[in-house]
Amino acid sequence: MTIKKIKKRYAIHFFKLSLQLILCLSLLGAVSCSKDDPVNEPESHEFLAKKKKTPVPYDKFSGALNKAKLQGPGSGIVKKKVKKGKKDVWVNVEKGNFKGYKSDKFYMAGNQMYFKSPKNSKKRTELRRLGDYEASASITSTGNLKVHSTSHKEFTVMQLHHSVKNSPLLKIEYKAKKNSKGKYVTGGFYAVNRNKPGASTSGRTKLLKGGSSAKFQIRYRPYTHTKKNGSKEARARVSVVVNNDSKNSIAIADIKQSDWGKGFYLKAGAYNQQSGEAKVSFSSLNW
Predict the structure, then answer these.
(1) Which residues lie below 8 Å from residue 164, measured CB to CB, with a gap of 6+?
(2) Burial class (CB in 10 A: 0-12, 13-18, 19+), 22
(3) Has residue 245 got a pLDDT over 90?
(4) From CA 116, how far away is CA 280, in angstroms rounded?
(5) How many helices (H) and strands (E) does the chain have?
(6) CA distance 89 to 83
(7) CB–CB of 271/126 below 8 Å?
(8) Which of 40, 83, 91, 241 is the most buried (most CB within 10 A)?
């Protein structure tokens, strides 16, 4: 055998060994990655970042949240629970401080924004729109909502309230019915209003829609009324549009602006009218 042939044979053998080595290293790398370092697995800081985000896109509700604060369980501002030792320290959840926040009373899931009222009467988990309207302003609030559960007869889901008079002009309430076993089941939505601050709401309740879900739009529209003697009076009509049916909007009240004055604001969520708790979700909310 010539020297040339010997060199050629060794070159082929070396090439085969190199291929085998490369193949072995590839297999070892694959085994190592699959067991100890999964491909595309986020680093620890990425997991933490995801935990801090709301479960649905914040932008979906940012139009309402950026103008609001969260209230509860009485009339105060809901606060974040932060563990400090063995105690819970509360941090205000106000305008611009919603992103990433959730609790068992206010959270987002399945493309919905959920409110769960604390137990007992007059307890709430509600968004309160910041800033008060003049009585001469045009006011609109739209919410597409669904009631999931309630352990009592009635609770409020949307309001046109007044900060100075401390009286809601209009409340949209969900009133449940009891079944044969004494449990509250599907009822309907009602508009409850008062024409003047502090006045009774007795006899001023209208059925808006039966069932447990609907889209409501509260409308407050100012206008000028001319009396028989020719004098002018500033008034406002209040109505509710159900499921976008503007042609058949439900008239609720016709008020004198001077009876109320500046101070109107909007609310949405779950406010107990009786002792118990309730859960409602909004797929959209605008004001």
Answers:
(1) 132, 261, 262, 263
(2) exposed
(3) yes
(4) 7
(5) 4, 16
(6) 6
(7) yes
(8) 241
For residues 142 and 268, give the distance between their C-alpha atoms in angstroms, rounded to a whole number: 10
The answer to whether the beta carbons of residues 281 and 148 sit under 8 Å apart is yes
d(CA 211, CA 175): 10
Per the structure block, which two tokens stand in for 2? 């010539």
- 263: CB partners within 8 A, 6+ apart: 132, 133, 162, 163, 164, 165
> What is the residue type of 263?
G
pTM over 0.85: no
State the Cα–Cα distance between residues 73 and 104, nearest whole angstrom. Answer: 12
Kind and range of the H or E run holding 167: none
Closest C-alpha to 148, from 170, 176, 179: 176
- Condensed to tens digits (0 to 9), the pLDDT of residues 164-216 reads 988 999 999 999 887 878 777 778 999 999 999 989 898 899 999 999 999 99
Q: Give the residue, 267 or 43, on which the prediction is more confident.
A: 267
pLDDT of residue 3: 56
- Asked if 281 and 212 touch (Cβ cutoff 8 Å), the reply is no
Q: Which two tokens stand for residue 79?
A: 């606060």
